[in-house]
């Protein structure tokens, strides 16, 4: 299948390569001419055969709105745009409505997998009309992990980004729990080899997970996390999850506290927030502040 990919950063670039490795033709555009296949969006659209599919992988907010608006002027009836960035779900309907005026479909795709997705595959949570999702299924099948899991058509427009928002809220809570356990053992006189304990948990325990594997990997590189500051950003989706809990009157104490802990990280360093910073770096390639 042929696909246009807008945004060839850490995620978009690897997604393009995974698709190409599986026999798909991807025409990529990025502001960096060193990685871009075309000079601009107009050339990208001209390189695609109809009905066209264009995947947008740029920062949420203004950059995504601008890109969708420009594509609305360039694409034709029957084409489909996918927003695979971390957009807030409330942005999706306005984008879908704008494109629908010109007969262009819209699919929102929450994407998880970080820098490991190239080899392991990307978990995809998508929202949109059945016919638009069906048009993209060869791409989704190539991007997702092998096997039965890793893809869901979660509902109509907005459902994909909503599911990804909740996914990230859960991620916040899990990371915080692992980090607090690490910090407690670091302070204890009882445990003399904290990294070995974390490594032992990777098999046979009810808390084993990929995040735990990544914490083990981080501790192999820096057993006391001495080279990492405990400053942790929040990407927005954690905040949106908590806001949605407030709107719907659903208690989210773990997610809320993990979000507030990230705010606390902007204060003097703690072992807890160093561990969270290390985990974000391991699974997503997010920058860490070095001592």
Please tell me about this protein's structure.
Residues 160-291 form the 6-phosphogluconate dehydrogenase C-terminal domain. Helix content is 49%, strand content 12%. With 291 residues, it is of the alpha/beta class. The protein has 2 domains: 2-156, Rossmann fold (3-Layer(aba) Sandwich); 164-284, N-(1-d-carboxylethyl)-l-norvaline Dehydrogenase, domain 2. The longest helix has 29 residues, at 159-187. It is elongated, with a radius of gyration of 20 Å. The N and C termini lie far apart (46 Å). The model has no long low-confidence stretch (mean pLDDT 94).
Q: Tags for this entry?
A:
291 residues; alpha/beta; Rossmann fold; N-(1-d-carboxylethyl)-l-norvaline Dehydrogenase, domain 2; 7-stranded mixed sheet; 12 helices; 49% helix
Please outline what is shown here.
Keywords: Gluconate utilization, Oxidoreductase. This protein is α/β, with parallel strands linked by helices and 291 residues long.
Distance between the termini: 46 Å
Task: Give unreliable regions as ranges.
Answer: none
The CATH topology label of the largest domain is Rossmann fold
Mean pLDDT: 94
**What is the CATH architecture assignment of the largest domain?**
3-Layer(aba) Sandwich
How many domains make up the 3D coordinates?
Answer: 2
Count helical runs: 12
Radius of gyration, rounded?
20 Å
Q: How would you classify the helix and strand content by structural class?
A: alpha/beta
The CATH homologous superfamily name of the largest domain equals NAD(P)-binding Rossmann-like Domain
Percentage of residues in strands: 5-15%
Instruction: Spell the H/E element sequence.
Output: EHEHEHEHEHEHEHHHHHH
Helix percent reads: 40-55%
* Approximate shape: elongated
**Which CATH class of the largest domain applies here?**
Alpha Beta
The beta-strand count equals 7
Please state how the strands of the largest beta sheet are arranged side by side: 2-1-3-4-5-6-7
State the major sheet: 7 strands, mixed
């Amino acid at each position: 299948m042929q696909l246009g990919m807008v945004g060839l950063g850490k995620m978009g670039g690897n997604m393009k390569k995974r698709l190409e490795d599986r026999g798909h033709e991807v025409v990529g555009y990025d502001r960096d001419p060193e990685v871009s296949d075309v000079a601009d969006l107009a050339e990208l659209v001209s390189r695609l055969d109809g009905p066209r599919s264009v995947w947008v992988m740029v920062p949420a907010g203004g950059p995504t709105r601008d890109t969708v608006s420009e594509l609305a002027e360039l694409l034709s009836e029957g084409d489909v745009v996918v927003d695979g960035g971390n957009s807030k779900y409330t942005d999706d309907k306005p984008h879908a409505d704008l494109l629908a005026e010109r007969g262009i479909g819209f699919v929102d795709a929450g994407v998880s997998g970080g820098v490991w997705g190239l080899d392991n595959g990307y978990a995809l949570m998508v929202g949109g009309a059945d016919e638009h999702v069906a048009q993209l299924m060869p791409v989704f099948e190539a991007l997702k992990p092998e096997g039965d899991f890793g893809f869901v058509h979660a509902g109509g427009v907005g459902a994909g980004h909503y599911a990804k928002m909740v996914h990230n809220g859960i991620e916040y809570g899990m990371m915080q729990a692992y980090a607090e356990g690490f910090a407690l053992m670091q302070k204890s006189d009882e445990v003399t080899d904290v990294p070995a304990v974390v490594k032992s948990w990777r098999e046979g325990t009810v808390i084993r997970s990929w995040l735990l594997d990544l914490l083990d990997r981080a501790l192999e590189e820096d057993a006391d996390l001495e080279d990492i500051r405990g400053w942790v950003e929040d990407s927005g989706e954690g905040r949106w999850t908590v806001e949605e809990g407030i709107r719907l009157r659903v208690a989210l104490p773990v997610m809320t506290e993990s979000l507030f802990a990230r705010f606390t990280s902007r204060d003097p360093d703690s072992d807890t927030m160093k561990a969270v910073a290390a985990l974000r770096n391991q699974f997503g390639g997010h920058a860490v502040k070095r001592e």
